[in-house]
Every structure is written in structure tokens, then in C-alpha cells.
From TrEMBL:
Transmembrane segments: none annotated. Residues 41-183 form the FAS1 domain. GO terms for cellular component: plasma membrane; side of membrane. Pfam families: Fasciclin. This is FAS1 domain-containing protein. GO terms for biological process: plant-type secondary cell wall biogenesis. Belongs to the fasciclin-like AGP family. The lineage of its organism: Eukaryota, Viridiplantae, Streptophyta, Embryophyta, Tracheophyta. It is found in: Cell membrane. Residues 219-231 have a biased composition (Low complexity).
């Protein structure tokens, strides 16, 4: 008898605690003090020299003085900045020869092409994909197209198609995202895209994504498998409560 009482009491406690954990957590957020405003100054040089390795890109930023343009945007504007940073090994790929033939003005344009004069969080790119061509710091025809494929941000410059592979920093006003390739602007290299170094040894893109048909992209986007994770975890919580209810009821039955 005593054992059943303990069983019931403990089950009711469990039930109450899981129910209160669920209902009490949102209000408990409000009394906590608002997070202190993020420090205004983000040292881009410092960030890029410790993350990465991004030494090649940082070297170009410094030799072209574009670092000052970007740092000024980060320091002094409400708009903020979004920078796409290729890793060092992106520069050692076949495309590097493309850069070596450029004038210093063109190199500067290529580096400016790697940033947008606005802070974008990763989820903001869903909106951009609808508006297509997005202006970069290089201005004019130097635009990038974004699309969001199953939560991965894809970037197209005409010459380069790549994706955001990680977020280095993403706190307003400064976003820095690592990309797999150097972004080569159509405005410099033209629309006459050369025979790609086709037997690319790194299969960094899933075969399905290579398919040029819009049809496959559509079917992918409308696939029901892309349901948000939130609903399943909610179901788990509900299941836990139900399990406790069943156990408690069982305890009551044993008691009588
Ligand atoms: C930014 O960081 C770099 C590298 O750590 C350092 O040399 C430079 O002095 C810093 N700039 C400012 C303004 O703090
Ligand atoms: C950015 O702000 C830092 C700290 O206030 C300052 O040292 C640096 O010179 C500024 N850089 C630019 C380009 O405005
Ligand atoms: C993106 O679109 C959503 C819904 O259309 C909107 O609520 C949100 O404010 C937009 N974000 C930006 C950065 O424009
Ligand atoms: C970007 O999108 C625009 C409008 O859909 C299109 O005309 C242009 O060719 C695209 N550019 C690239 C580089 O994909």
C-alpha cells in the first residue's frame, strides 16, 4: 500500500513538473535582464586571422585596402555588412590562375564582390532568393544571386556556384560566412563561361543539385519531408506527459 502511494505521488510530481516546465518556461524568460548590447566594434582583421584559415583572403583585403571599407561599414553604419570568405584552399584550386591575370583594380573589384552592404542572418537569405540579383560592394553589374535549398544558402555569380558552409560570425551588424569557392563576377569574366574543370575531384555538391532542370528543384522544395523539427520534439513532450498520466492512473487502480 505504501509503495503504491509513493508510486502515485512520484508520478503526480513528475506530471506536474513536466507540465510546469512546459508552461512556466516562457514567462521565466521575461524577468532575466535583457542581454547587454553587443560591443559596437568588431575587429574584422582579428576575426579573420583567427578563424578559417582565411589568410589568402585577408591578404587580399589588406593589399587592396578593402579592409578599411569593410571595417568602416561595420563600425559606422546601421546597415551593417555581410562578408563571404573563401578558405585558403579555395584560392589554390584551378580558379587561382583566373585571378593572377587580373589588374589590381580588377582584384579589388573581386574582393569587394565578396560583401553585401547590409547585415543578413542566414534565414534572411530566403527573402533574398525571391528578389534575385543582390548588389554587392563592387556596385553596378556586380551582383550575386542567392537561393535557399533545404536550408543551405547557395550563391551564384554566374561563374561560381558555391554555398555557405559555415557561419564564422553572425551578430548584427557583422555577418561573416565561409564559402567553398572564390566568387568570380560575370562583370569581369563575362558570360562566356569556360569549359569548367569538369572532372572536379571534390564532390562537394550532391548529384541532384547538379541537375539543371527547374523541375527537380521544385519537387525538392515541395517535398513533405522538410517538416520542421519543432513539431516532432513537441510531440515527444506531449508523449511524456501522456505516459505519466497513464502511469498515474495505473497507480490509482493498484491502490483501490
Ligand atoms: C584589430 O586586430 C588586429 C589583429 O589582431 C590588430 O593588429 C589591430 O590593431 C586591431 N585593430 C584595432 C583598431 O583594434
Ligand atoms: C573602427 O572602430 C575602431 C574602434 O573604435 C577604431 O579603432 C578603428 O579605427 C575604426 N576603423 C574604421 C575603419 O572606422
Ligand atoms: C522575410 O520575409 C518574412 C515573411 O515574408 C518577413 O516577415 C521578414 O521580415 C522578412 N525579412 C527580411 C529581412 O526582409
Ligand atoms: C540572377 O537572377 C536573375 C533574375 O532571375 C537572372 O537574370 C540572372 O541571370 C541570374 N544571375 C546569375 C549569376 O545566376
Amino acid at each position: 500500500m505504501e509503495f503504491s502511494m509513493i508510486f502515485i505521488v512520484s508520478n503526480i510530481m513528475l506530471l506536474l513538473s513536466s507540465a510546469s516546465a512546459k508552461t512556466a518556461s516562457p514567462p521565466s524568460l521575461s524577468p532575466t535582464p535583457a542581454p547587454a548590447p553587443a560591443p559596437d566594434f568588431v575587429n574584422l582583421t582579428d576575426l579573420l586571422s583567427v578563424a578559417g584559415p582565411f589568410h589568402t583572403f585577408l591578404g587580399y583585403l589588406e593589399s587592396t585596402k578593402v579592409i578599411d571599407t569593410f571595417q568602416n561599414q561595420a563600425n559606422n553604419t546601421e546597415e551593417g555588412i555581410t562578408i563571404f570568405v573563401p578558405k585558403d584552399n579555395a584560392f589554390t584550386s584551378a580558379k587561382k590562375s583566373a585571378l593572377s591575370k587580373l589588374t589590381s583594380d580588377q582584384i579589388k573589384q573581386v574582393i569587394l564582390f565578396h560583401a553585401l552592404p547590409h547585415f543578413y542572418s542566414l534565414s534572411d537569405f530566403k527573402n533574398l532568393s525571391e528578389t534575385s540579383s543582390t548588389p554587392t560592394f563592387a556596385g553596378g553589374d556586380y551582383t550575386l544571386n542567392f537561393s535557399d535549398i533545404s536550408g543551405t544558402v547557395q550563391i551564384s555569380s554566374g561563374w561560381s556556384k558555391t554555398k555557405v558552409s559555415s557561419a564564422v560570425h553572425a551578430t548584427d551588424p557583422v555577418a561573416i560566412y565561409q564559402v567553398d569557392k572564390v566568387l568570380l563576377p560575370e562583370a569581369i569574366f563575362g558570360t562566356n563561361i569556360p569549359p569548367a574543370p569538369a572532372p572536379a575531384p571534390t564532390p562537394d555538391v550532391a548529384p541532384a543539385a547538379d541537375s539543371p532542370t527547374e523541375h527537380s528543384a521544385d519537387s525538392k522544395a515541395s517535398s513533405p519531408s522538410s517538416t520542421p523539427d519543432g513539431s516532432s520534439s513537441y510531440k515527444l513532450i506531449s508523449y511524456g506527459i501522456w505516459a505519466n498520466l497513464v502511469l498515474a492512473t495505473f497507480g490509482v487502480l493498484v491502490l483501490f
